[in-house]
UniProtKB/TrEMBL annotation:
It comes from Hymenobacter ruricola. Keywords: Hydrolase. The keyword NADP does not apply. It holds the Pfam family CBM_4_9. InterPro entries: CenC_carb-bd, Galactose-bd-like_sf. It comes from the Bacteria. This is Carbohydrate binding domain-containing protein. Residues 2-134 form the CBM-cenC domain. The keyword Metal-binding does not apply.
Length: 151
């Protein structure tokens, strides 16, 4: 396990004024993250691989609880790896589509996906994990996010 966040404590994820942190709905506690037409990207986990692990990871798993309003909600949990924290060059980019991952709408559903990382990942690569609105016309909520690595 690299990190777990129920968005009650936002240490290491940014500041408390982040627009995507909301108390409108929550799976646990009082807060979750939300993307909607006014908030394109959620709070982002952002660390280098070297800060996350001492071994070279082969897989990264993201899990949590999603609240999806309907089949038109095009949001996804995104894993993006850049060559470095200051680089725009992408090493890896893949998402977990929330509509196809839940077995119903307007209720909290557990979702999980393991991403197979390319052999080219390196310790100085910047890892970002966030919820992206996509083209969702309605709010989509995510809570109790956990990120883990497998070497």
């Amino acid at each position: 396990m690299v990190t777990r966040n129920n968005f009650e404590n936002v240490q290491g994820w940014g500041g408390a004024n982040e627009a995507s942190v909301t108390t409108e709905k929550a799976h646990s506690g009082k807060s979750s993250i939300c993307v909607n037409p006014q908030v394109e990207y959620s709070y982002t986990y952002n660390r280098t691989l070297g800060q996350m692990t001492s071994g070279k990871p082969k897989k990264l798993t993201v899990e949590g609880w999603a609240w999806v309003p309907d089949k038109n909600a095009k949001a996804s949990v995104t894993v993006e790896i850049k060559h470095s924290p200051t680089s725009n060059s992408t090493v890896f980019y893949e998402g977990l589509d929330l509509v196809s991952s839940v077995d119903g709408f307007k209720d909290w559903k557990k979702v999980k996906k393991t991403f197979t990382l390319p052999d080219s990942v390196a310790f100085n690569n910047a890892v970002k994990v966030y919820v992206w609105r996509g083209s969702s016309p309605s709010p989509v909520y995510f809570d109790d996010m956990a990120i883990s690595l497998e070497n």
